[in-house]
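Per-record layout

source: Vitis rotundifolia
name: alpha,alpha-trehalose-phosphate synthase (UDP-forming)
length: 760
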Amino acid sequence: MVSRSYSNLLELASGESPSFGRMSRRIPRIMTVAGIISDLDDDPSESVCSDPSSSSVQRDRLIIVANQLPIRAQRKSENSTGWIFSWDETSLLLQLKDGLGDDEIEVIYVGCLKEEIHPCEQDEVSQILLETFKCVPTFLPPDLFTRYYHGFCKQQLWPLFHYMLPLSPDLGGRFNRSLWQAYVSVNKIFADRIMEVINPEDDFVWIHDYHLMVLPTFLRKRFNRVKLGFFLHSPFPSSEIYRTLPIREELLRALLNSDLIGFHTFDYARHFLSCCSRMLGLSYESKRGYIGLEYYGRTVSIKILPVGIDMGQLQLVLSLPETEEKVAELIKQFCDQDRIMLLGVDDMDIFKGISLKLLAMEQLLVQHPEWQGKVVLVQIANPARGRGKDVKEVQAETYSTVKRINETFGKPGYDPVVLIDEPLKFYERIAYYVVAECCLVTAVRDGMNLIPYEYIISRQGNEKLDKVLGLESSIPKKSMLVVSEFIGCSPSLSGAIRVNPWNIDAVADAMDSALEMLEPEKQLRHEKHYRYVSTHDVGYWARSFLQDLERTCRDHVRRRCWGIGFGLSFRVVALDPNFRKLSMEHIVSAYKRTTTRAILLDYDGTLMPQASIDKGPTPKSIEMIKTLCRDENNMVLIVSARSRKTLEDWFSPCENLGIAAEHGYFLRPKGDVEWETCVPVADCSWKQIAEPVMKLYTETTDGSTIEDKETALVWSYEDADPDFGSCQAKELLDHLESVLANEPVTVKSGQSLVEVKPQV
């Protein structure tokens, strides 16, 4: 293999000669102009900048990266060393590919296998998966995988993202630096595997979920212009929760190395944007319906779209003979016994609210004894994906609650709660959907949850199932949903009965309402849901995300990119093609060659850091300016928005220093010269109108201040809450424009300020 080249492994696997001209060429760096532009990243192995002119037209290719490959693996036999691989039809990643269509785009997967592969078999397995499935497996040592997945992902990130703080060792895992290092190491291993197949100029990379949140940094560092999307399938917590994470900024900056970041709901996106504002000082804006964050010259787009289900796969399963047989069996078990089935399908974990649902069922039977002997709650409890003390506690509470309810309200031939805690085949679960009169999803926090979507499509059924159910095809279908307010699919299901799962009485009332609701109302709600779910499937979601990713990356070739920063602080600075960065050598050379020099120095943010509490110049800055002023060939000028009195006091030791105060309204070429005004001195009677308005907003906005200059008034909210300050600034801007409409002044907003000054 050629050093530092990324050959198309698919071609190698198929025995074809690698097309080094297209897939493995060395990516040229940005052209440098002697004495003007310097490359900030001198190590070519660390960061590569693409030459815009070298891109070639070819079929789009998408690299999907996730913790787990959509592959099932099993040994050929106990004594054999070979493996049998097949697609995991239930995997969202596979459904995503089917939704895009093979003709549209070529898809490659990068991820881990569920089964552990012995090191001596890994090369052979990689070859098979690459040739047969276009999958690139990532092999992790068992100890590293445990610390990464069961440690950092499941014990620290997952609970926190579901609003569970580690207030005690029993409530989620406390932050562990070694687990964090394992997480970073695994993300780096994933990046190395992607390097083996990526064509950075043309390929799109789509990373999925919280397991790989720092992966964008590793890819962006290697390829500055990589087309990179990230979708978070879990909730993103509010800033009050997220800011407790010790590595909060590292994760935010890593995500911002993506071009497009996707969330299921506006709430999740809003929380992420709030974290970026409060912790990184970044603001966002919406342009023509698209939300974007400006980050070092790059626009990071935000996508809000809930994932859908695979309609084709679900309709195929509904048509299976096994499904019809199972439906007939359930009808005999429940409907023929005059039982009404309520259904719950959840993982056995602390956030799915199984125990709350059972308590609501108990309350329903107490408050409405007429349902005793008639209503049955079938609770399908899938095995938990994590492990630990909390899972065992949930299991124990679930079993004891089911036992108590059945002992209290059960009778021969009737158990009000049927708990199924063994894995069901997909067609069996679908059969339960078909028969259930109402589906209950009472999770206390969940990223999306597609159970309601599957239930709606299953209740729509088909002609064969209608015959099994004894329904006429002409009769409109019906379904009822009781869903938690705290799950991602809730906003898109406007016909569902939404509940607070913590309010047991309200959930019980919702269950009773679902049972008592008139048939036409159930039919109308079902029709509304079916129309939405059937048109917003997984293919629609995937195509929409990729379209936005392509739109966001469209201007990559028109930007000059430099990578700066070390480790997880790495980011790319994107600049206009005409930008020229002055090198130190060029400045020194030009300074020595010339005999007359004009040196203009900005103050805030240049001579003095923007975030500095003491706004005055340091002794070192004063000494530096005095040194420049001693040279008779230099004319040194400080340009600032500050008042002339403030600047005069600060720079009084610098006798030959020129000062331009209040954005140049006042000018003094040297210390011993009188101040001049560039325009006639304006009438400032308008301050009597503006100042009371600003004082009103200062009193109601903690951390805001007013600066009264000679020619301007400035309201600053630099130390206020960023969200509230920004909101107040917009109100103040409108208020001032209204009351000063007939005055010769300009009202404008800037970075954390609103300023009123005379018209020029």
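summary: The CA atoms of residues 5 and 24 lie 5 Å apart. The chain has 24 helices and 28 strands.
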